[in-house]
Amino acid sequence: MENSNDIRKKQLLNGVIDTHIHTNPDIRRRRLNDIELAKEALRVGARAIVIKSHLVPTMDRAAIAEYVVPGIHVFGGITLNSYVGGFNLAAVNVAIKMGAKIVWLPTSDASHEKRLQGKKEGIVSVVDNKVVPELINILKTIAENNIVLGTGHLSPEETLVVVDMAKELGVQKIIINHPEWWSISMSITQQKKLAQYGVYFERCYATRFPGKEYQKNFKSNFEAISEVGYESTILATDGGQTENPMWSDALVESIEYMLSAGLSQEIIDKMTKEYSAKLLDL
After folding, report:
1. CB within 8 A of 56, min separation 6: which ones?
2. Number of folded domains in the chain?
3. pLDDT tens, 65-85?
4. Rounded to the nearest 5°, which phi and psi values hold at 188?
5. Is the pTM of this model over 0.85?
6. DSSP 8-state class, residue 216
7. CATH number for 226
């Protein structure tokens, strides 16, 4: 027999889509593997999940998870870190042919984040306020295939340059990944400038500065939604860490905070269901 917490969870998560969850296998232990995540998503009534890895493409893993767990849409993509060759057009083309829904720009390998950690290496996306040629070719491919561009861990300044070029090249679907992440720390002014391009801000459960524990983003996320607008917001978790709750519990907690802060269920539905569905062609 279900307890009241499970009933509440299923009420809040029925039909939701989470665009950002990390799973095993990984070099860092995650809470669930792909199939376990798909089963949990189905159990709580979610419509779709997106598996993300900093290391390897995930669209093939997603296809297997969806096959094993019918009744839930499972998507993946490719993150352009060094492990796939950085701005590797061949890797992007193959990923798209295999069903990738999102191409994420460098995350842990982004030169911006590396510099903040006192390291010199890193993948450079912008030089002299211009997008590097290798990335331009990838942006063209994303536009031609009408899939999602995720901005990864670029600096706010780099993100603006890349988004401007992406829109010029015809990219229609852009997610600004966790603008509250420690290495991004995007200001409201910067977010408002980016919002004019028709992007979506993916506001996630928590952030963690190097060497520190995770801190929940609810207050800063709500303030950003209030200032920038819910119309450009996707609520996601960036979940899967063993230090954080189960992704479904994290999303419930986020939704409950937003409801208690005064956002309507209609607005919550747009941020957790409608906008993500449009981006994923559901």
Report:
1. 83, 84
2. 1
3. 999 999 999 999 999 999 999
4. -65, -40
5. yes
6. E
7. 3.20.20.140
